[in-house]
Write a structure and sequence with these properties.
The chain has a domain at 18-94: Cytochrome b5-like heme/steroid binding domain (Flavocytochrome B2, Chain A, domain 1). The protein has five helices and six strands. By secondary structure, the protein is an alpha+beta fold. The N and C termini lie far apart (82 Å). The protein has helices spanning 21-25, 56-62, 68-74, 78-83, 119-140, and strands at residues 5-6, 17-19, 28-29, 33-38, 41-44, 88-92. The structure holds protoporphyrin IX containing FE. Residues 36, 43, 45, 48, 52-54, 58-59, 62, 67, 70-71, 74, 76-77, 79-80, 83-84, 87 line the site of protoporphyrin IX containing FE (HEM). GO terms for molecular function: heme binding; metal ion binding.
């Protein structure tokens, strides 16, 4: 179960071990410890099992494996994410990472419009047309209110 290598992160950062997925898999129950991979980092949640608001069963289901998808599917709060560092025991070996470090959720507000779509041009073209028509009538009869 030993960590394969120490992570070299500079003097200030704590040196946490690098684990292979096979190492994490050995910690898949309460007897051997409950480890879960989240975003390429390894967490030992053994002491958190009975405190988890979602219940210990869901954590035990993910024990020894990668719980990233389930963790994100639940939509854990910022408070939940702030709890993570205290259970961090290491990181996945770079060869086995999925590079899911980014936890930000990007929401697109374009409603599926593609660049170059004709609908992108509709509003400005119609606006210019309306302005030109109004200007035309104004020139024809400048004294009259629009
Ligand atoms: C160390 C890892 C984890 C921590 C620190 C954690 C923490 C929390 C916290 C604080 C909540 C309360 C709601 C919130 O603040 O978002 C919660 C709810 C929950 N968690 Fe986790 N969680 C972890 C891992 C997981 C995993 C791997 C699963 C897998 C399915 C999971 C499933 C759930 C569920 C189902 C709820 C209940 C959501 C609800 O009732 O709306 N959690 N967790």
């Amino acid at each position: 179960m030993a960590a394969c290598e120490e992570q070299q992160m500079g003097d200030a950062a704590p040196r946490l071990p690098l684990y292979r997925r096979a190492d994490v898999k050995l910690h898949n129950d309460t007897a051997s410890g409950t480890w879960i991979i989240l975003h390429d980092s390894v967490y030992d949640v053994s002491s958190f099992l009975d405190q988890h608001p979602g219940g210990e069963e869901v954590l035990l289901e993910q024990a020894g494996g990668d719980g990233t998808e389930s963790f994100e599917d639940v939509g854990h709060s910022r408070d939940a994410r702030e709890l993570l560092p205290q259970y961090l025991v290491g990181h996945l070996h770079p060869d086995e990472r999925k590079n899911t470090e980014t936890k930000d959720i990007f929401i697109t507000t374009t409603g599926g419009l593609k660049a170059g779509s004709w609908t992108n041009w509709l509003v400005p073209v119609v606006s210019i047309f309306v302005i030109l028509v109004m200007y035309h009538f104004y020139l024809a009869d400048p004294g009259k209110d629009l």
